[in-house]
Amino acid sequence: xxxxxxxxxKQAEKAARAAKVAADAEVSEQLRTLARFPKPGRRExxxxxxEAQESTVMLT
Length: 60
Known about the structure:
Layout: H1 2-36, H2 42-59
């Protein structure tokens, strides 16, 4: 009985390590994706607003 418990504990620990590695890899991929597309600064936001206003004026 103790041998089975020890084996199950080892399997559970191995599965937990594998899950942690998978989760870490997913987070790393998400961070790389975010790094490729930086958050726009104030200039970009204002430029986008101005372009939106200009295109609205052209439509009317």
